[in-house]
Amino acid sequence: MNRYIEELKTHLSGLNSSDLNDSVTYYQNYLIDGGFVNYADCVAELGRPGSLAAQILNDDSIKSDHKANAHHRTRVQKQATKNTSLVVLIVVLAIIGAPIWLPLLLFLGAIALSFTFALYVLLFGLAILVFSGIFAGLVSLIWAITHLFTNFSISITIIGFSLMALGLSLLLIPFMNKSFIGLGRSIKNISLWVRMQMANRHRSDRGNKE
Q1: What are phi and psi of 203, to 5 degrees?
Q2: Residue 176: pLDDT above 80?
Q3: Predicted local confidence at residue 96, as pLDDT
Q4: pLDDT at 61
Q5: What is the DSSP string of the chain?
Q6: For the chain, what percent of residues have pLDDT higher than 70?
Q7: Averaged pLDDT for residues 155-177
Q8: How many alpha carbons lie under 13 Å from residue 201 in its C-beta half-sphere?
Q9: Position 62 pLDDT exceeds 50
Q10: pLDDT confidence tier of residue 152, bands split at 50, 70 and 90
Q11: Would you say 161 and 197 are in contact if contact means Cβ atoms under 8 Å apart?
Q12: If I label 147, which of 52, 116, 168, 180 is the partner at 20 to 30 A Cα–Cα?
């Protein structure tokens, strides 16, 4: 029996000392209790030491995998619980702080809307100036052409300034078009955001009253 146990220890050298001692002690007691003294009797009962060791190592590997999976599941569950607690805390803080931050956000939104509206008015004034420049340039150009032979020097000067005014005005038209579109979208988005905040505030106040 001692020979069998020694060979089993040799084949189980890959185990840590604790698992090795537990396995060897278990099978040693098993053989003693069963009265298996001879090497041949031990092999007949448990199989060769190498085969038994392979089975023990395989069982130990499965147990290790189960432990690793259980540890991973526990860690994932803890992380999920932590994330849920964080979300709940953020929601609670948002509800408690709503009387403070919501009016501030509405105030900032009103400022942004006013600033955007001022830019819109500025662009509208620029558009009027551009179209006035186009109109004045065309009128001046027509007048200069019709008086080209009677007031040549003055007509040439007016034609030059008229063409310059027309060119600058035409160059500004695409810029104004894009600016009007962008500001229109900004005003729309800000208006929608302010209305949503006001609706949320109204629902919150109604819920508190109920």
Answers
A1: -65, -40
A2: no
A3: 60
A4: 46
A5: -HHHHHHHHHHTTTS-HHHHHHHHHHHHHHHHHHT--SHHHHHHHH--HHHHHHHHHHHHHHHHHHHHHHHHHHHHHHHHHHHHHHHHHHHHHHHHHHHHHHHHHHHHHHHHHHHHHHHHHHHHHHHHHHHHHHHHHHHHHHHHHHTTTTSHHHHHHHHHHHHHHHHHHHHHHHHHHHHHHHHHHHHHHHHHHHHHHHHHHHHHHHHHH-
A6: 63
A7: 82
A8: 16
A9: no
A10: confident
A11: no
A12: 168
**End-to-end C-alpha distance for the chain, whole angstroms:** 83
- The alpha carbons of the chain give a radius of gyration, in whole angstroms, of 45
Q: Is residue 129 a contact partner of residue 168, using CB atoms and an 8 Å limit? A: no
Both tokens assigned to 169: 């005005």
Q: Read off φ and ψ for residue 35, nearest 5 degrees.
A: 75, 25
Q: What is the pLDDT of residue 68?
A: 45
Burial code (b: 16+ CB inside 10 Å, e: under 16) for 94-123 equals: eeeebeeebeeeeeebeebbeebeeebeeb
Predicted confidence at residue 174, as pLDDT, reads: 82
At position 118, the amino acid (one-letter code) is A
Q: How many CB atoms lie within 10 A of CB 167?
A: 12
Cα torsion through 129, 134, 137, 139, rounded to 10:
-110
Q: Does the pLDDT at position 98 exceed 60?
A: no
